[in-house]
Amino acid sequence: MGGHVEGSPFLVKAYSASRVSVTDISPGVVGRPVAFTINASHAGAGNLEIIVAVNGRNVPNYVQSEGNARFKVNFKPTEAAPHTLSVRFNGHAVPGSPFTCIVSAPAAAADARAAGPGLSSAPRGEPAEIHLTGFHTGEPTIFVTGPGGSSVRTRVTPTGDGRYTGSYTPEAVGRHSVQVQCAGRPVP
């Protein structure tokens, strides 16, 4: 009795999940990265567990350390539905968890336009160019179908400030159908 206990004194690291804060949760848009911030700098030592889910399925997320136990979490939603953000510290839910991030479908850009020689005529075997402007709320998609109904590979390159350059190379002589879309809606 009263003797020394092997291994003592014991080093205990106290922590508090209630000192973890989750901030900067903004509504998201399908196909565009969403980020939020976790600050565990006053919570003590521990492990974070972050789960992003939609309709019962987990969504991949990526955690970037910003130093001093502060983290930026990114995910890219693929469907328009509320996403659940569950954050735990050493197995305990942090205050407010689970959080909800509202994700909506991208709106078609009202001022999106397509122009250029690739919409009227194009020499076989040479790139046909399309100038795309006004795509501030979503990225353009170009679909080209050749004379036999086959798909033609397209390329879209951002040039800044809602502008893009699109191109395709017709491999066959004949009528080609070119469709430009934003968020699944046709662009004039």
Automatic annotation (TrEMBL):
<dbReference type="Pfam" id="PF00630">
    <property type="entry name" value="Filamin"/>
</dbReference>
<dbReference type="InterPro" id="IPR013783">
    <property type="entry name" value="Ig-like_fold"/>
</dbReference>
<feature type="repeat" description="Filamin">
    <location>
        <begin position="104"/>
        <end position="188"/>
    </location>
</feature>
<keyword id="KW-0677">Repeat</keyword>
<dbReference type="InterPro" id="IPR001298">
    <property type="entry name" value="Filamin/ABP280_rpt"/>
</dbReference>
<dbReference type="InterPro" id="IPR014756">
    <property type="entry name" value="Ig_E-set"/>
</dbReference>
<dbReference type="InterPro" id="IPR044801">
    <property type="entry name" value="Filamin"/>
</dbReference>
<protein>
    <submittedName>
        <fullName>Jitterbug</fullName>
    </submittedName>
</protein>
<feature type="repeat" description="Filamin">
    <location>
        <begin position="16"/>
        <end position="103"/>
    </location>
</feature>
<comment type="similarity">
    <text>Belongs to the filamin family.</text>
</comment>
<dbReference type="InterPro" id="IPR017868">
    <property type="entry name" value="Filamin/ABP280_repeat-like"/>
</dbReference>
<dbReference type="GO" id="GO:0051015">
    <property type="term" value="F:actin filament binding"/>
</dbReference>
<dbReference type="GO" id="GO:0030036">
    <property type="term" value="P:actin cytoskeleton organization"/>
</dbReference>
